[in-house]
Amino acid sequence: MFERYTEKARRVIFFARYEASQFGSPYIETEHLLLGIIREDKKLANRFLHSHVASIRKEVENQTTVREKTSTSVDLPLSNESKRVLAYAAEEAERLAHKHIGTEHLLLGLLREEKCFAAQILLERGVRLADAREEIGRMAHELLTHEQRTRPGVLGELSPYLTDITEQTQPLVGRENELDRLMELLCRLTRKNPVLVGEPGVGKRTIVAGLARRIADGAVPQSLAEKTILALDLPPLRVLDKDSSWHDRLDRTLVAAAEEGKIFFVSLMHDWPGGISPVSSIHVTELLQRPIGAGKIQCISAAAPATYTKLQADRHWLAQYFEPIQVAPSSEEAAIEVLHSVKGAYERFHKVSYADDAITHAVFYASSCIKTGCLPGTAVDVIDEAGAAAQLQQGKLPEEVVELQKRVRFIVQRMEASIENHEFEKARFYSGEERRERNNLEQLRKKYNLDENPAWNIRREDIERAVSKLAGMPITAIRESRAPNPGGSGSTLN
To answer: For the domain 7-149, what is the CATH superfamily, name and number?
Structure first.
């Protein structure tokens, strides 16, 4: 049934089935398809719905009778309305002479099923069928024009050096002023390339990732709504040495990607101390000077204060084209808030729990004893170190549990490979195998009482041992160190 569907469109159906199961619905309804589109294709959703994305989920929740959740393993059927939506989507793809059915055709299908809940939601937010058809036709033309303009294979050539940073870092806590300033600069016509200036550990990358998440959620100004932030790690200079045309191809590719709404985060651009290859006269940063200077691409960078000050003194082009945003170290009070917001991820990963006094002392000790970075990054390192040490103290798992875990990982790898190769019957088989083996694993864990054992509780003493390793200080010296209370004056932590 879904042979002609693009990978994104198939994932919309998958997410729609998941949404239906969460609401306890016996069918995949049109509103579930709409939620699937919003979840899978954020660029399409932002293009048509702008700032209304968050309100749609709330409306669906308010207008839906929530029943007991259905198991995600249950293969929920499509409702009659949803079946018609898929039929309309196929017709829209044919009308546009598109070979495959994509998320944009599913959106048009929802609008054609005029009396369904999803269509009413879209109409209330100003999305009309005729306008949507015109816009999607324009999108297809833009894509075709771009493909004709871009040399085949160049984007593939660049892809190893690009990564999506939206989910790569810890949640952003605070930093509203820095985030607002970052958005202001990106919205400018000139001098629109920000550089976050701060010491290691202050959270420069986390601020950029926070903006990427806001864009994905649609909580940004209209001019940023269709942008995407990608981390760009420039290729090693030996690539350039072997292929003298790589520079020009890179230039064209970056410009073409920027025209599609890509903003590049190059974290080390300002901090490369020289970047000269022994066999090449090309400076790494010079690769980006031409498109940045011409205003054809936007970049975000990060730098240490000393490095940026030197670039300003030397009147380097990086200082001329980039606007600085100062990022100061977090206060101890703010760092404690950050640790409380991220500790859940570390508790799940290390299978531990962090006592409140462990969080507080992680910040105090990091501030007073660790001099190789700044808050909150140094304090995060401390709780991570303490969690890793706790794993060693909890002992090894029984051998048969380890073996079954290996089998589950093997099955999951096979299932993902089958999905990647569009071998969906195989994927369904492996999905059933995974469920069976996970049930077996659950029984084994009960047999050995693994889930009844309380999580290792990390306290102040564990934090002190972690700081001792990171700072190279004896525990007695750490206990005698002085650190300020959040928002207060200095006090001895002992």
So the answer is: Clp, N-terminal domain (1.10.1780.10)
As a CATH number, domain 332-395+455-492 is 1.10.8.60
Torsion of CA 100, 106, 109, 114, to 10 degrees: 180
Distance CA 194, CA 327 (A): 12
Identify the band that residue 115 occupies on the pLDDT scale cut at 50, 70 and 90: very high
Q: Answer whether residue 151 shows pLDDT above 90.
A: no
Select from 3.40.190.10, 3.30.420.10, 3.40.50.720, 3.40.50.300 the CATH code of 156-326.
Answer: 3.40.50.300
Whole-number Å distance between alpha carbons of 359 and 369: 15
Closest CA to 231 of 283, 170, 169, 184: 169
293: nearest Cα among 235, 261, 257, 251: 251
| Residue-wise pLDDT tens digits, 173-226 | 889 999 999 999 999 999 999 999 999 999 999 999 999 988 877 788 989 988
* Nearest alpha-carbon partner for 287 in 303, 306, 272: 272
pLDDT at 267: 83
Which residues are CB-neighbours of 464 under 8 A, at least 6 positions away? Answer: 361, 365, 475, 478, 479
7-149 shares its CATH topology with 156-326: no
At 160, the pLDDT band (50, 70, 90 cuts) reads: confident
- The mean per-residue pLDDT over the stretch 245-258 comes to 82
Q: How far apart are CA 335 and CA 84, in angstroms?
A: 52
Q: Beta strand pairing status for 352-354 and 162-164?
A: unpaired
Domain map of the chain by residue range? 7-149, 156-326, 332-395+455-492, 399-447
